[in-house]
Amino acid sequence: MFSYSFKARLLMPKLVFVVRNTSPDQQKEELAEAACHRNATANDINEGDIVASTAQIPETPVHFPSFHLSVLPPTTGIHRSNVRALLVEHVKDDFRHHVVNSWAQAAPRQVVIIGCQSTAYLRRLLSMGDEYSFLIMDRMLSRLLTAAESLVPEFGPRTQFVRSDAFFLLQQLLPPSVADTCVVPMPVPFWSEQSSHQRLVTRDFFCVIHRILKERESPTDPRGFVTFTDAVPLAEFMMEQLMESRLIVPWVRKNPAETYGRWLPLVSEGVNDEFSAQRRLEGLTALAASKSGPTSPQADAVIQSLEYKRRYYRALSFPAEG
Q1: Which InterPro entries match (predicted)?
Q2: How far apart are CA 208 and CA 205, in angstroms?
């Protein structure tokens, strides 16, 4: 007897990675429509109008070459296991060919940026030199389209944008040891226990990041992981998760201002604050770590077996005003 999951996959259409070789205007129009559709769908889900069964119908993965932008379907949750399986089986190779290879060949070093909240931040980093090519991912297509329209004409092949859920992309679609650096700018705190399952930087996240990063060559090698936040309780939580992940993969904590200063944002008051729209608290706390040893076969087996069930964490205490 076939399992329900396998039978569902047999009934679903085969996914292909579609490359839109149309005019830039046509690609922009399609992307704008897709962004509006995603926003409307997100609102419907928040209002309870979308049933879980719709998650079993995957959207077609599409690459828009004029904008260096790829759109992958949602993959979070245990109810999307069929979607994830189809993407790995039918889309992974083409995604690596069109996106990962282009990114890897565009510069001597590669950085993964998870979060596209500030185009000004990305522009400054790209303007610092040609050493790095950028793979920028976000769950919000509208953010990516805005950044791509601004940055691709100026920086060309050094930029690749992906609408995807970060955990799946890191765990399943990116090859091992492909990136020199991973940066998570201003992750959302999700203060309450009820929303804590949406926090990005967790033990499992540190494990999948370890797999795709290159091992440092020396203690001063700028390869590694960097994040920063205005929420001290979130910074403390992320540090706890880093320490927990060290039971599986080897990390060494680093001083962000020394080796990874180029990735820290401008926080001057006024127009120079690159994350003014996201900041609710004063100051910034940064966390950095370097991959101090290889991802062992045992650790890789653990990483590949990580599940997509919701995991809840303790609530974070919002700082009292005044």
Answers
A1: SAM-dependent_MTases_sf (IPR029063)
A2: 5
